[in-house]
Amino acid sequence: MSKLTHLDEHGAARMVDVSEKPETTREATAEAVIALSPEAYNLALSPDSPKGDVLATARLAGIMAAKKTSELIPLCHPIPLSQAKIEFEPQDETASLRIVASTRTMAQTGVEMEALVAASTAALTIYDMVKAVDRSAVIHSVRLLSKSGGKSGVYTASDSSFEAEK
């Protein structure tokens, strides 16, 4: 059975020592989906929303969050990001937005948490900007899609490993 790397032999939380690991190029991609009412969906897609450009604001919030991940998640290492990117995929049939966050670094540890925090924060920012017209918006399907680099190699989520909410 695998052991949790953030717990010591006594079960106490600890930051993993990465000092002996080589620096390698590491990349990760994560997603989040936010389901909206049709009215909120249309507002989110409009650059003329009453609160401003919802997607531009969410993109910046996601990038900023990726850069601050180690301040938000207690045992994450601060790492130098060489890229943080947020893309939006409108899903007209479900009035949803799929948010895809990609991160890259050259470091001793991975960037999965940075991608997950970026996608989540972008979704939360969309919620914040449309909540005046849709408090029932739902954020779901936050997950790691892929990662590469480091000792554990490449990971790619399979659709069969996760049944996305509709």
Fold blueprint:
Layout: E1 24-35, H1 38-45, H2 54-67, H3 69-72, E2 81-91, E3 96-107, H4 112-130, E4 138-148, E5 155-156
Antiparallel strand pairs: 1-3, 1-4, 2-3, 4-5
Helix pairs in contact: 2-4
Give descriptors for this structure.
4 helices; alpha+beta; 5-stranded antiparallel β-sheet; elongated; 166 residues
How would you portray this structure in words?
The protein has helices spanning 38-45, 54-67, 69-72, 112-130, and strands spanning 24-35, 81-91, 96-107, 138-148, 155-156. The protein is an alpha+beta fold and 166 residues long. A five-stranded antiparallel beta sheet has the order 2-3-1-4-5. Helix 2 packs antiparallel against helix 4 (112-130).
Q: Roughly how many Å apart are the termini?
A: 34 Å
In DSSP terms, counting alpha (H) and pi (I) runs of 4 or more, how many helices? 4
What would the principal axes of the Cα set say about the shape? elongated
Characterize the biggest β-sheet: 5 strands, antiparallel
Q: What percentage of amino acids are in beta strands?
A: 25-35%
Please state the CA-atom Rg, rounded to the nearest Å: 17 Å
Strands across the major sheet, in which order?
Answer: 2-3-1-4-5
Average pLDDT, all residues: 90
Helix content: 25-40%
H/E element string?
Answer: EHHHEEHEE
Counted beta strands: 5
Broad structural category: alpha+beta
Question: Which spans of ≥5 residues are poorly predicted at pLDDT below 50?
Answer: 161-166
List the quaternary state of the chains: single chain
